[in-house]
Specification:
alpha+beta, 28% strand, 36% helix, elongated, Macrophage Migration Inhibitory Factor, 4 strands
């Protein structure tokens, strides 16, 4: 049973997440085979102030 974990900034809509998980599932099955109902996807919303790259908070780099 494959598990795909995605961490993304908070603020995505349910529809965007729905589209993402469908696309990830379809791509996994197309590329690696298996059944779609066996693919598990975990989405984790992360606040920009809790994410940093290169010593810079994403909240500072990409303010609202």
């Amino acid at each position: 049973m494959p598990i795909i974990t995605v961490e993304l900034f908070k603020g995505r809509t349910r529809e965007q997440k729905r589209e993402l998980v469908q696309a990830l599932t379809d791509t996994y099955v197309r590329v690696l085979g298996g059944r779609a109902d066996a693919v598990t996807i975990l989405l984790s919303d992360v606040a920009k102030e809790d994410w940093a790259v290169g010593g810079e908070l994403m909240a500072d780099k990409y303010p609202e």
